[in-house]
Model the fold of this input.
Amino acid sequence: MTEFLINNMAPIIFASMVIFLLVGFPVAFALAANGIFFGLIGIELGLLGPQLFQALPDRIFGIMSNDTLLAIPFFTFMGLILERSGMAEDLLDTIGQLFGPMRGGLALAVIFVGALLAATTGVVAASVISMGLISLPIMLRYGYNTKLATGVIAASGTLAQILPPSLVLIIMADQLGKSVGDMYKGAFLPAIVLTLFYVGYVLAVALFKPRWAPALPAAARTLHGSKLLLRVLTTMVPPLMLIFLVLGTIFMGIATPTEGGAMGATGALLMALARKRLTLSLLKQAMDTTAKLTTFVVFILVGARVFSLTFYGVDGHRWVEHLLTGLPGGEVGFLIVVNILIFLLAFFLDFFELSFIVVPLLGPVAESLGIDLIWFGILLAVNMQTSFMHPPFGFALFYLRSVAPASVKTTDIYWGAIPFVCIQIVMVGILIAFPQLVTFGLDKQVKVDLDSVEIEVPASSYGGGGGYGYGTPAEGAPDGQPKPGAAATDAILDMLKEAKENKEK
Done:
């Protein structure tokens, strides 16, 4: 039994972790408990040294001193302030008026507002709840199909998962050891393409099933001409300026993601103040929720560090690497299996848990196969986006159910989400087939082939040979002059000759 435990410690730890998660034990404590329990067993079996846990304080302090993670509370706070300041309501009303005359106009407005909220808040819950409260009753009132209306709201809210300044991209960059700015740049184009796919689906539904997505009646379109233009400008300009303040400064290298988040939080406060909606109660709620979410993330990260200390100590990372690199099909086989695994795990785990548990194990394997980690991280982020939309466990579906009218059936919410889950899966396939969607615009890494590097050491002329040439012009030197350093060589040789002559005398 002892020999079996020693030889199979890594898969036993991993299986135990999965069982803990499936029974619903809190993730942070499940990770830490497994790490400590199996660490003690490993020490007892002689597989690990007793000094193993002496590394824990340094690992935990490393989390506390990680500047990148500061962006999480900043972006969360910014999103909550904007969501409670009524920006979503104003945007939906304005863009709804703009697209109202066309079939599916309200659904298109929801998608565009979802993208704008994602680019300013980065918080899925805030986007889904805001649009569920505001747009769902309006869409149902004007005759939209319940499945289409709920699916569009849930899907557009999850754009906050992939569109910068997404929280998951910050965590993904931290876990893969890459720049958050590069992760944001790489995710921008895939997020736009995914948004356009959602738009294409709505337009197709409006074309083939016009009763599902009627146009707004003339009585509901109260703004026209110059009034509509003025409303669009006054409503759209502030969030667009905020997007530039946050993402533009990061993309141009003026600010780090943490500094961009701080500026975004300040900008959100100023916008709420300008709208006269910044109250002490709103500020307290936003700060309270931000503190809870940040604490939740840090606790999971601490638990993950404890777990990985033991798992790496028993060479678990090598076990995972051998398991995945031995798959048939090489790089493509690895990508297919990993994406299927993430898709299935997303039924039970949210993106925080997947990022902290699974990604650190997959990253080194991907790197050993020569896969670009920025592209790999965004590919996983798009796949993890399905975790918010999976019936029956998708968090976006839960958020929507909590604010939807009682007349909306839960099964309608589930069926409405399925087409958008399929679109997200198609997007994963497109990213695998066309990695240029991510790598376009990123700085190219210069790879040096160490086997082809040649180091030429000039031979000394002392005792014969060429090289710099004693007292003679160096070969290839301009104007027949000795190469730099030839004079020093000559001086040393003169001293040696003089010493030799004195000895002979």
About this structure: The two ends are 84 Å apart (CA to CA). The longest helix spans residues 280-313.
